């Protein structure tokens, strides 16, 4: 039996994520879970995200994973890359607006090469710098990666601000783009 777990916009709390991480380690779950979507929960704790990501290494049948619009950060993304290494069934990975940069990109590039069935990779609205332009060719030079989406207009660049008000406005615009619904509006 194939299982699907869709928790998009579920307003997950720290406690519920920790319970989910423990549940994912259960044999009846990790042997059959194919689809996991925990996107748009606006998880802000790196510790909690690391616990969830650590449980992913048990999901041997996982084909689809969406962690979009949660704080993953570079440390958790590197742990995710290591967890997914050797996941031969993963076909879709979504890491949109998870606040990762070049360090995470390098780790993903290295570890995802072993994910031979990976066909769709979305990492929109992250800050990769110039490495993003080289990423797709290095990940699957033989063209196996069918779709990859990088929102290149968000490549990090040096910005100058006239005053603190401009800086606050720019930061607010970025947060609105990445987190359109504040977690307290659930």
List the helices and strands and how they pair.
Blueprint: E1 3-6, H1 14-24, H2 27-30, E2 33-37, H3 46-56, E3 64-66, H4 73-84, E4 92-94, H5 102-111, E5 120-122, H6 132-139, E6 147-149, H7 164-178
Parallel strand pairs: 1-2, 2-3, 3-4, 4-5, 5-6
Helix pairs in contact: 1-3, 3-4, 4-5, 5-6
Account of the protein in words:
The protein is α/β, with parallel strands linked by helices and 186 residues long. It has one domain: Ribonuclease Inhibitor (Leucine-rich repeat, LRR (right-handed beta-alpha superhelix)), CATH 3.80.10.10. The chain has helices at residues 14-24, 27-30, 46-56, 73-84, 102-111, 132-139, 164-178; strands at 3-6, 33-37, 64-66, 92-94, 120-122, 147-149. Strands 1-2-3-4-5-6 form a six-stranded parallel beta sheet, with no helix packed on it. The two termini are 32 Å apart. Mean pLDDT is 77; it is low at 151-186.
- Over the alpha carbons, how many angstroms does the gyration radius reach? 17 Å
Largest sheet: 6 strands, parallel
Question: How many angstroms separate the termini?
Answer: 32 Å
Do you know the CATH architecture? Alpha-Beta Horseshoe
Count, helices: 7
Outline the low-pLDDT stretches. 151-186
Number of strands: 6
Count of discrete structural domains: 1
Main attributes of the structure:
186 residues; alpha/beta; Leucine-rich repeat, LRR (right-handed beta-alpha superhelix); 7 helices; 38% helix; globular; disordered C terminus
Short account of what is shown:
Helices cover 38% and strands 11% of the residues.
């Amino acid at each position: 039996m194939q299982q699907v777990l869709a928790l998009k916009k579920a307003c997950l709390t720290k406690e519920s994520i920790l319970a989910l991480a423990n549940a994912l380690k259960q044999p009846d779950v990790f042997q059959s879970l194919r689809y996991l979507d925990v996107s748009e929960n606006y998880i802000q704790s790196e510790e909690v995200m690391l616990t969830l990501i650590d449980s992913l290494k048990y999901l041997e049948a996982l084909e689809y994973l969406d962690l979009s619009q949660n704080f993953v950060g570079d440390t958790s993304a590197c742990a995710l890359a290591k967890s997914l290494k050797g996941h031969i069934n993963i076909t879709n990975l979504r890491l949109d607006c998870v606040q990762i940069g070049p360090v995470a990109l390098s780790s993903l590039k290295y570890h995802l090469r072993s994910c031979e069935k990976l066909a769709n990779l979305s990492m929109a609205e992250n800050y990769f710098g110039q490495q993003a332009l080289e990423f797709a060719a290095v990940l699957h030079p033989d063209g196996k990666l069918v779709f990859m989406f990088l929102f290149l207009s968000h490549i990090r660049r040096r910005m100058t601000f006239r005053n603190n008000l401009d800086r606050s406005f720019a930061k607010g615009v970025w947060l609105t783009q990445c987190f359109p619904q504040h977690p307290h509006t659930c």
